[in-house]
Amino acid sequence: MKLEDLTIKSIQEGLKKKTFCALEITERYLERIGKTDKKINAYITVCESQAKKAAKKIDQLISDNQPLPPLAGVPMAVKDMFSTCGIRTTAASKILGNYIPPYDATCIAKLKDAGAIILGKTNHDEFAHGSSGENSAYGETKNPYDLERVPGGSSSGSAAVVASQEALFATGTDTGSSIRLPAAFCNVVGLKPTYGRVSRYGVIAMASSTDCPGPITRTVEDLACVLEVMAGGDPKDATCPNVPVPNYGKFLGGEIKGLKIGIPKEFFSEGINKKVLELTYKAISKLEDLGAKIVEVSLPHTEYGLAVYYIIVPSEISANLARYDGVRFGAGREKFGDEVKRRIMIGTYVLSSGYYDQYYNNACRVRELIKDDFAKVFQKVDVLAAPVSPTPPWKLGEKVDDPVKMYLSDIFMVTANLAGVPSISVPCGFVDDPSTSHSAASSGRVGSGQSLPVGLQIMANHFEEEKILKVADYYQKATNWHKILPEV
Amino acid sequence: MNKKPTLSRQDVVHIAKLANLDLTKGEIGKFQKQLSQIVDFVGKIQEAPLEKVVPKKEKMNLNDVTREDLPAPSLKEEEVLQNASQKENNFFKVKAIFDDT
Question: ipTM for the complex?
Fold first, then answer.
């Protein structure tokens, strides 16, 4: 059993055929974590004893000949923004350094019920505020493909563990890029679902009108399985409607002939890295070769996306983080890191008397224009394809003292959050073609710094995740970029 | 020539007070510069074609999901209090807010 060959399907088959037991798989992953995580610092907490206990329960089901739930024995990592009953949940902040939730987030409870095993809690930017993972109070996570570069944030640890086989899949949260950017930078698949597709109950709040929990996996097939478990209405989240959850796996494997893919011209602007642009165009022509119809479209208000985002999101942050006062639990507000303080203060400023109309109200109005852009475009096309990040992963430390420069990396991702539409990042190549490297040819792995991954973004209309998955799966099976693993 | 920062030191001190944050002198200077840059950056919103926006009743375009208001099992008292820094008789113990002395 090689960890890199495991998928949700192969684990289910292996368990049923008794090729291996659940405990063996969990132990192999724990071993891998012990070996590699000191290099990448992707976990804040590893829950060895709980994981083994949960795995033994699955093995008991097998020996009792009980039916197995869909994710039985599948080892997962959970971003430390998700409340996990009895497991420390820090939000990567010193303010919650000792916080142990007495309950599970709804989607975590669903994943546990489905048989998934929690290996540990992953690192990320404090309270998910950041695009590089460097704002964590528990040290930065390193990109498994280049240990001197950022893995992308905020779900930095979640993408890094999946890339380095320290978990089969991971949960992330995406408020303005935080699943898709690290997925792109770590050569894995990450989906920001439709707003309200996955319950936010028990997920530590960042910006309540854009927060979207979602899965990070190596393959689109695995992602479909995990999404099916995480998604669905929740009476505990008033923004999570009872829209039926389809069998996402059923939409995979079909042809994409005739499917209309829109290319939003505003996402191909100046300032985008040449190599990223080249790989994105290559991916689009691949989709065309596979039978899709490519149509140029326009999302004319994209240029205001970041301004709207950095007014509305900090406003909601300033309100949501007001609760951390150390009065009932947690440490005092002096423990907040710099980026958290900056965002709280920006939110406070744009909501304050004299500025509210000029900033917050205007931002809410422009958000309507951005939503209308998407609504109009999805009358013409099935999905949209675009770059994820305008650049490949940058060097650790490069942007930490320049918040605005850091914010610009999210330029192509924030509008999906503002409009609430689903969006995926799927691997679409490497800055330096790894097939020219000797070590890649012999071991199937690329050494640190040899090659930097790039992701392709695919978006669809509200609650049409299946369209995204269909295209992403077809593309992934035709290209196999995800099979190029880091030598970490 | 350096542009004068959009926010003054006094602005930063005022915002920090509203946000219940205690800043050190060094932080005030650093945040004055950084917050001014961010405020300038989001100022782009003023150039947006606001006249095109059709006012909508609901800002989020979403219907709230409601449920019956029925009693259901919830957390036990000791679970609710398990993270309390101080507790007494199954209550959070906090510092007095009003002081009569």
Answer: 0.94
